[in-house]
Every structure is written in C-alpha cells, then in structure tokens.
Amino acid sequence: MIRRAVLELAKTGIPRSASMDDNIRKTRDLNPRAINLWDYVTLIGAQLSRPAYDPYRETINLDISIGIGKSRKIVLNIPLIIYGNIGMDSYSLDSLHLALNRLAEGGQIVGLILDREINTKKDKRKYPLFKKISSISENQTSDLLGEHNDTCADGLVFEYKDDSSVDILRDLRERFDGPILVDVSNVFPSFNSILDLKTDGILVDTEKITKNSRYNGKHAIKVICDARNALNGYYKGKEESSDNAILVIAGDVNSTGKIAKAAALGADIIGYSTSILIANSHIYSEKPYDVISIAENVYRHMIGTKEELRGIPAALGYSDFHNISPSDLRTSSIDASLQGNIPLEGIDKTYLDTIGGIIDEFISNKELNMTCSEVRDALKSMGGE
Amino acid sequence: MPYSKDVLDLKRHILKAAETSRSYFDLNKLIVDVRKVNDSEVPYSGLGARSPNDYFPSIKIIGSEIKPKENDVSYNEIDTTFRLGGRYSSNVISTNVPFFVSGMSYGSLKLPAKIALHLALNKLAKEGINMIMNTGEGGALPWELYGSEESCSNISKKRHESILDYAVRLLKEHNLESIDRDLLFSRFYPLVTQYASGRFWKDPSYLLNADAIEIKIGQGAKIGHGGLLPGPKVTDLVAENRGIPSYKAAHSPSRHLDILGPEDLVAKILELREITDWKSPIIVKVGCSHVYDDIEIILKSYADAASIDGFVGGTGAAPWELRDIIGINTVPSLIPSRKAIEDYYSITARDEFKLIVHGSVWDSERIAKCIALGANGVGIGTGFLLSMGCTLVQDCYTNVCPAGLTGSYEKLDIEQSVTGIVNYVKGTLSELKNIAGSLGRKSINDLRKDDLVATDELSSMLCGLLLEDGVTFKDLVKEKVKKAIDSRDRRINERLENK
Predict the structure, then answer these.
(1) Where are the beta strands (DSSP E) in A136-277?
(2) Which sign does the torsion angle of CA B314, B318, B324, B326 carry?
(3) Buried b / exposed e across B238-263, counting CB within 10 Å, b at 16+?
(4) Closest-CA residue in chain A for B309?
(5) Of A354, A359, B428, B488, which has the fewest CB atoms closer than 10 Å, so is most exposed?
(6) What is the C-alpha separation between B153 and B210, in angstroms, rounded?
(7) How many Å separate Cα A52 from the centre of its chain?
(8) Cβ atoms A180, A156 nearer than 8 A
(9) Cα-Cα-Cα-Cα dihedral sign, residues A256, A258, A259, A263
(10) Beta bridge partners of residue B45, listed in sequence order
C-alpha cells in the first residue's frame, strides 16, 4: 500500500485520486486481520529524560535467584527455564541436555523443567533441573528427596490439581530443601493457600489458563497481569516482602519481545519452549540425526537470545533486566489496556482511568447524577472488573 | 537476505515442529529464531517496525481533496513555507517545502543513492523547490560540504586536497567517474548535519559548512540503542569517511557520553553555538518514548527545534526484536509533544521554536494530518527510498539490496532515481497545496485540528477529535454510561417482575 502510493507519485509527479489512508481503510474493512494483543503493546525507551545504558560497553544484569527463606537457592544467569507442553523424543532431550551443559560451562545457567528422567551417564548435568510432578508415591518421594546428586532434581514443579494437593505440597515442603515451584494453572487465579505453604514460586501457563471458562477469549497479558496482582496482593503489608515467591510465566511467551513484555507485566522468569522446538526440528530433517549439531543449534539460539535480552533493559535505561516494570509499557489498543491494565500511548493513562476521570468530571459538573455503585457498574460494562 | 540452503532447511524443519506442536508460535518471527540458530548473533533488520495501529488511517481530513475534481482549479498560490531557526540562531533556513529528507547516512545508503538524492535536491532547488536534507549520522560527503569556494575557506589547503582525493576515489570505486563534476560539486539546498553519539566527523568544517545541526539523541527504530552499521557495510571508503576501522561493526554509544541530563544538553548546545558563532539553527532529535518530558527539556535548552521520531521510523540496521517492541507511534507522540510546547508558552512569550515529526509519514495526507495536529515540519526517509525503487524487503543491513539502494549499488539507475525523487516531491507538494486549498486555506500552516475527524474511539480520545458523526469522545462516554445504567435498571426491574 505504501509502496504503491509513493510509486504512483514518483512515476507521474501529479496528484493521485486517492490517498494511502483511504486505501488502507477500504482494505481494513474488507479484510479484518486476526488480532494478537502482544503486537499492540510496546515498551518506552530511554532518551533525554532517562539516558540509556550501553549493552556493548556496560554490564547488564539478567541474573535471578529462585528460593525463598530456608530453601536452597538456584541462580539463573538468563531468566529462562526451558519448559513447554511439547513432546520430546530422547534425541531431542539429549541435545537439550548437551546444550544446557555447554551454556552452564560458559557461565550461562538456564533451567530445565522435565517430567521424566534425563540420561546423564555420559555427561554430568551442570544446569538446574526442575522435576515436574503432580502426584507422588513413596518410592518417588525417596528418589526425589534423596541425597542431592546429578540424577536428582535441584527443584520441583508441583502441578496443583485441587484441594487434595495441599497435603502433598505440605509434605514436599517439609522434606525437600530445594525450591518448589507450583503450577497453579488448574486453580488460577486463587493461589493464596499455596503461597501460605512457603512456595518458592508460582508457575502460570497462559495457554492452559486461556482455555479455562473464566479466561476464555482473554489474552496472555490478562493472565500475567492477574497473576502479578494476586502475588502482590498476597504480600502487601507482609514482613517478608523482600523475599517473595517468584512468578514463572509459560505459554504464549516465545520470542524475545514477548519475554520483555511479559517481564514488564510482572513475570520474573519465563517458561521458554522455543528451545524445545529447535531441539525437535531434527525430526523433520532429511539428514541423519546428529546430537551434537542439534545441541549446537539450541546453544547458539540461546546465546543470541541472551544478547537480545541484554539490549532491552539497556535501551529502557536500566542496568538490570528485572527493573523493567508495568510503567514501561504502553499500548495502542483499548482491549490490551483493559486486559493488561496498560496505559494507552500518548495518554499515559489506562482506558478505564481515562473514562473514570471523565465520569468524575461529569459528576462534579452535575452533568450526571450517579452513585459510586453506578459508576462501578458503568465501568464494568465498559470492560473493567 | 539470500539465506543459505542450510538456514532455509532449518527454517522449514522448525516450522514443521512448530506446526505440529500444540503450542502457539508466532510463525512470522521464526526467521529471527533461525538466524540466531545460524550464527548466535542478534538478528538485525532494516526499515521500520510494523505497527498494527499507527492511527493515521483512523483520522480523516474533512472535505479535503488531494486531486481537485475540476481540472481548472489550481492551488499554486498556497503558502507551504517552513522556517527553521531564529529562536537562538542568527540564520534562518526558509524553504517552501514543509517536508524533507530524514537522516540517511553514507554507509547505510550506498553512494549512488546518496548522489541521486543530492542531484535531485539540486534539480528541485533550481526549479524553486528548496528542500532540506539531513546527512544522517555517518558524516557528509565531500560535495555536500565542500561544494563552494566559500565552504573551503575554513579548511587548510592540504585538507582540501585530501577531500578531493577522497571524492575521486569514491567515484572511481563506484564506477561513477563519468559523472558531471560541476553538477556534483555544487549544493543549492539547505543541509543539516547530524551530531550523533558516534561523532563520525573529523573537523569543525563539518559543522560550519552545514546550514543547521541536528543533535541526535535517538531514533524511532532503535530508541535507547546507538547507531549501527554492520561490519560488512563498513567498507574502506565508508570507514575513511567515519574515521573508524574497516569491516568492523560500528556501534555508536547508546547515549552521548557528555549528555546525560538537561544541564548537559544546555552545555552541549552552547558549545555548538560558540563553534558556529550562534549562526546555525540547532535541532534536537529524540525517539518517541517519554516525549512530553523530552520536549520540555529541549524547550528549556538553547535549541531552535525538536524533532521526534515515531515507532515506525526507519533505519538502515537495528536489532530486529528491539525495533519491533520499543517506542510509541508518531501520532500519540505528536499530541503530548504539542501539549508540552503549549504548556511552555503559556508562561513564556512565544518564539520561533519548531516541532518536526518523523516516522510512518509517506504521503501528502499524512503530512497534512501531522501539521493539523501540531507539527511544523515532517521528515521522510522511506518515502524517498520508495521513489528510488525500494521494494521494502528490509535487508538494508546487508550488502544485498534488490533496488541497489543499500547494497548491490551497481543496480541503481541514478538518472531514473533523480526523476523519481523529483516527481515524488513535486506530486506530494501539489497534493499538499490541494488539501489546504480545497479547505479554503491560504497556507498549509493554517491546517488545524478542526479539519480532522476520527473514525474510531481511540483516535478521538487520543487526539481530542470529533468522531465522524460529530460526537465528541466525552459525549460518547456519557452515552455509554447512560446505556450502562439503563441496562442495569432494566435488569433489576426484570428480576423484580419475575419475583
């Protein structure tokens, strides 16, 4: 459209009969595209009022520690844990294992969440492994909670199913000294009782949750926003506010841009599935399987991703990735503003705050006569909750 | 970019893995992942980000025509003057084109494209159309700065000889030795030199011989990230022009090391004022982010103008992901920028401060919309590339460009490009005059917000425009509130009746 508009002028030098925007409007009406709210959300960079950091010449921190209170601490050098609801064969797993080891050897520790054993006979594991469990038998308990060695998990991801899961979690907490992350996707967004059990982190799978009836039709940004609000609400006024459970977001967060936006919305760590996808690509290759070259692919991809991640806080004026906050976000969509409580660009207020301000003005000018509950109902009807 | 077979195979395999997984993946971005797999480097891209909502199509100019229906109507008398300077500078650039060539440096663009721009602007100037060109960060070319005897007066004879020698080598390397030297070594249009964090210039004549200076704090395509020219594009001659090593990526610092706050900006502008004897107009350019605060700082410095570059603003090379996620659109930046200016002048006497807007502006209607919303001038980059044949494949960061603009320079037909640029400028200028004339305005600068309507709620809310049916955004809210209360009351009554 742009090209056609300019080429017409460049060819003839005489005024056209329709402008570019007229044509865009016509096309847009004919062909409404599927909207992904991630595309409507951006971050605001550092300029004069806040100078940028320089990722090529200055240190930018990506490290994050998992483990609160007396739990053994695990430090990740990249805020990613490899995790996804994607099947993996043993070849893919071997490649992933080699790649994560190589990253760890270079001081780039990334975690892995897995629901099965990993073959570490040839290469000792050098990265933190989180074992995913939903129920647990006595044998498994002794395996999991036994003496810490390279076959034993460094952390656990416990899938919380219903109220009966409380007892298992309590038991795990008493017997396991490593960090325990709880997948709360089945009970989201009610997880206060889980945090009461000194859980080290909450894992939220946006893909699973947006399939639930309550979040049906909602976007991942709504889920992340609600998860962060729930966590902040739990810790509000509590003494241990400096040692809070972390928030791990998985699901529809699979590019560097989305990682940064999810972090701004409140995610501490991302459950990252793109590495699994790359490890799985060998299945479709015509060449014979080669564990080392696939591992190399995963490794290179992660190094590139890490460099991209370092550039983002720097461009926003931070030396630490974890300083990115909701105040760095802006959106060009009313829906994204409503779902993620994100300020609209150019207005710097959320849609609801703007509407609320106008209603207040009407009330003070006596143009409208409304009670508080009526205001609340009106805002709710416009998408607020 | 012509990817190797291995990369394309890998993309195919990952695509299949993504399609068969139950998870959602942004398939448009898979090539970014594949490129990281290929070389573990941060993938770059060229041109601007794709914004799903850049607001322009949701704003209409009421009752205007870009081509008058009656052939005998001519709006040639419409004033399109743009003046730059005079707030603190003693010189004022006065042009009759309110849009100009944004900064596109030599290195990012190949020499033939730069020459085409130079010759086209000279041709336009001879026809009375005086348009400003910005050099971009990478420094100016010899004929841009040293085209007249006067311009050579402030450099030594030895330096002049070395500049001429460099010019000869430039032309030779690009097989352009047959070009008319008299035509090349003259400049009739106003030139703005960019003073960026990379400081790619060798002597003060770079500043003294230009008509204005632009301090580049940032740009829309890579806000918070310094300029970037990938290694393969830093040829010996590009490196010589910039004073940097050949074939090594030129990463400019992400901030000016001596401009860390408002006071530093004032000090820097005063330094440049002293160098130029307070003659040259000075512009400060920022990428759009915290625009209200940034414009407030620029207003309080000794600058003559502020320049803002929106999210969609183009580039020769930027980290792909960073380009696509940082920044805000041009229209939502323009509104708070204008507000900052109005707030400032509510307590200070109005002067010659100007606001220039860049990013996603390619045609007359968009220029007119920007002016009606409060801009004084508009910078265009991609529009000029398109008029030279750009195909928008976004490979500007490589040495391969299908149009011969940013790579494969031998493909570019300079003569044809000059014609394209001249036509584009003339056509756009005519359209602009038609827009203003059809609205009954004598000057393009008389366009106001009242000439615009919004076709959606968000644009009305943001720009304070009436909606197409004449309703204000506040009226719309009132209507929605009343509907919400009515519907609630109805529900309560229904429930009571059912009981």
Answers:
(1) 155-159, 180-183, 201-205, 246-250, 269-272
(2) negative
(3) bbbbbebeeeebbbbbbbbeebeebe
(4) A47
(5) B488
(6) 14
(7) 24
(8) yes
(9) positive
(10) B318
Q: Measured on CA atoms in the order B427, B432, B437, B439, is the torsion positive or negative?
A: positive
Q: Which of residues 20-79 of A touch B (CB under 8 A)?
A: 20-22, 24-25, 28, 33, 35-36, 38-40, 42-57
The amino acid that residue A330 corresponds to is R
pLDDT in tens, A234-257: 998 776 556 899 999 999 898 999
Q: Check: CB of residue A208 under 8 Å from CB of residue A183.
A: no
Structure token digits, residue B399: 């040495």
Instruction: Report the residue count for chain B.
Output: 499
| CA of A126 vs chain B CAs: smallest distance (Å) | 21
B380 within 8 A of B97, measured Cβ to Cβ:
no
Between the alpha carbon of residue A101 and those of residues A94, A113, A306, B334, B387, the distances in Å are 11, 14, 16, 49, 52
Question: pLDDT (tens digit, 9 = 90+) per residue, A27-81?
Answer: 766 555 567 899 999 999 999 999 999 999 999 999 999 999 888 999 999 999 9
Nearest by CB to A44, from B289, B431, B480: name it.
B289
Instruction: Classify residue A36 as exposed, middle or buried by CB count within 10 Å of its CB (0-12, 13-18, 19+).
Output: middle
Burial B162-180 (b: 16+ CB within 10 A, else e): ebeeebeebbeebeeeeee
Measured between beta carbons, the chain A residues lying within 8 angstroms of B25 are 254, 274, 277
For residue A128, cis peptide bond before it (omega within 30 degrees of 0)? no
Residues 6+ apart with CB under 8 A from B413: none
User: Would you give the DSSP letter of residue A34?
Assistant: P
Mark residue B32 as left, alpha or beta (left: phi above 0; alpha: psi -120 to 50; beta: remaining). Answer: alpha
ipTM: 0.94
Nearest to B425 by CA among B133, B115, B99, B95: B99
Check: CB of residue A111 under 8 Å from CB of residue A81.
Answer: yes
B452, B372 in Cβ contact below 8 A? yes
What six digits make up the tokens of B177?
């030795």
Asked whether B42 and B319 are in contact (CB, 8 A), the reply is yes
Which one, of B103, B33, B29, lies nearest residue B324 by Cα? B29
Q: Is the pLDDT of residue A366 over 70?
A: yes
- Residue A208 near residue A185 (C-beta atoms within 8 A): yes
Strand ranges (E), B203-265: 212-216, 228-229, 250-251
A33 bridge partner residues: none
The per-residue pLDDT for range B253-311, each reduced to its tens digit, is 999 999 999 999 999 999 999 999 999 999 999 999 999 999 999 999 999 999 999 99
Beta bridge partners of B64: none
Q: How far is C-alpha B446 from the chain's CA centre?
A: 23
B355-390 tens-digit pLDDT: 999 999 999 999 999 999 999 999 999 999 999 999
Give the bridge partners for B195, in sequence order: B215
Q: Do A283 and B17 touch (CB under 8 A)?
A: yes
